[in-house]
């Protein structure tokens, strides 16, 4: 089997037949010539339907996830919303309790309009997941590791539960990327990534992708919905994502290494009341993470002793960690998630989420040390 480093490094790279160029071309055309009899000589009709650069990015992403098919979208939210809207009306969705907060908002506000219902469950408690199943459950929506508490759920066990109930399992694997976790190989049916994060990798492109284990009716329904509703990624975004993917494994290794250094420093610091990082043996699902992940990722969160005000003060004192949302870029970021998620947020007030970037780990630790010293 070809290693993921090799698949990524060569993604989209084949000599262009017209010029011999090695790096993937960017094709911006919105429309493509028909043959006199109406056929499409190259299979392309109109950019919204399909286009060569999007197709190249999708082939690369499908190869990285071991998927039968991948569909690219302009954002991670568009990808997720499409997977949900394509479900049969009347369906019931089990949503993990620490899923990205906008998906919980989407479920609360939009599901009634789409004829869907949902139940929020702690996916680290498999008995609770089994108990929440209903005859009309069509999808289990897992996010692992989760945002922002870094909860880890057991993908293989969830896939068994889902399939035993004739439902699908979708895994939002944004925090792990395909390099650290391969949900389809563990039995999941669909993997979602916000390509805005590690896949793009440089904080300058938005995108989302759905990777399907089977080229089945649900994948087709998602494709149809994208085509008709118009949630097509721009060729430029697709090209940027393809460019990012080529260095993904090397970046993920460094993110993991830096995050471990930061997590170990925080775990020993008296001002850190709790550290949420699946790579720490003290993490409640460390064993599951060690089994299903190749590395523990670049994301972590910690709770500052003293709560909300103390956490805000620490964030304000940090110099290398920029106070900004999002994650997965080269520069380190810090965010007080409860402020962003709003008054209904279940996220602890003292929690700071860190996206650990590609700087030197010692510099990041020094920055945290000065900020925690006050
Ligand atoms: N999934 C996770 C885990 C996220 O953190 C995010 C965004 O932060 C999304 C999905 C949504 O992605 P996007 O912002 O590209 O729409």
From TrEMBL:
What CDD domains does the database record attribute to this sequence? Answer: CGS_like
Annotated GO MF terms? cystathionine gamma-lyase activity; cystathionine gamma-synthase activity; pyridoxal phosphate binding; transaminase activity
| CC annotations in GO | cytoplasm
Output the GO biological process annotations, alphabetical, semicolon-separated. cysteine biosynthetic process via cystathionine; transsulfuration
Database matches in Gene3D superfamilies: Aspartate Aminotransferase, domain 1, Type I PLP-dependent aspartate aminotransferase-like (Major domain)
Q: Which terms are listed as keywords in the entry?
A: Aminotransferase, Pyridoxal phosphate, Transferase
Cofactor(s) this protein requires? pyridoxal 5'-phosphate
Which residues does the record list as N6-(pyridoxal phosphate)lysine (modified residue)? 197
Q: Do you know which InterPro entries this protein is assigned to? A: Cys/Met-Metab_PyrdxlP-dep_enz, Cys_met_metab_PP, PyrdxlP-dep_Trfase, PyrdxlP-dep_Trfase_major, PyrdxlP-dep_Trfase_small
Q: Where is this region: Disordered?
A: 1-25
PANTHER family named among the record's database cross-references? CYSTATHIONINE GAMMA-LYASE, TRANS-SULFURATION ENZYME FAMILY MEMBER
Q: Which family does it belong to?
A: Belongs to the trans-sulfuration enzymes family.
Q: What is this protein called?
A: Aminotransferase class V-fold PLP-dependent enzyme
Species, as recorded: Luteimonas wenzhouensis
